[in-house]
Amino acid sequence: MPNTKSAKKQLRVSLRRRAINRAIKSRTRTFIKKLRKAIEAGDVEAATSLHRQTFMEIDKAVKKGVFHENKGNRYKSRLTKKLNELLKAQQQG
Fold it and tell me: Most buried one in 35, 67, 70, 88, CB count within 10 A?
């Protein structure tokens, strides 16, 4: 339990920021899961539209400091790679 006035305020601030960060992280992960599910289902239209939205969410999370920049780039790289494999498979077959 904090003793000083500044420590009490810092506790309030950190609890508020934690709630905001968890919400942003959850929202971003939900978009990532939706995109992965669309790719696995082979739904090219849904995957391409979700791709743009997911990237915006990832960039927003990185900008706000919820994810490290490298983690955001890693997510985007892997998702793009899976989407490109789906597009390539659709063009061939």
Answer: 35
Residue 29 in tokens: 């992960």
Full set of structural domains in the chain with CATH: 7-92 (1.20.58.110)
Quick one: which of 72, 65, 73 has its CA closest to 18? Answer: 65
- Nearest CA to 69 out of 59, 79, 54 is that of 59
Question: Cβ atoms within 10 A of the Cβ of 63, count?
Answer: 11
**Residue range 11-32, pLDDT digits in tens:** 999 999 999 999 999 999 999 9
Which structure tokens are listed for 25? 């992280």
pLDDT tens per residue, range 26-75 = 999 999 999 999 999 999 999 999 999 999 999 999 999 999 999 999 99
